[in-house]
Design a protein that fits this description.
Blueprint (H helix, E strand, L loop, with lengths): L6 E3 L5 E3 L7 E6 L4 E6 L4 E6 L4 H6 L21
Antiparallel strand pairs: 1-2, 3-4, 4-5
Amino acid sequence: MSVTEGFFVDWDGNTRRTLDPRGGYLCEIDAVARYVAVTTRSGTLVHEATFYKSLADIEKAGIKASLVAGSHPWGKREDGF
């Protein structure tokens, strides 16, 4: 897997850029399989998502998810984040 520019939907339903997931996370992408693995810096898998090459591809899939900046926190305070 490699890092490829694109988008994915996080566990809160937000769209994030694969090159800037932040939160201490990294993205590994398999573009052919349309797969995103979100991992910690030590390699622990914390989230799996579908890879989208563009925001238009997310809309075509019928997903309504706001694009958030990398600085937007993962999770919610009530979830312990």
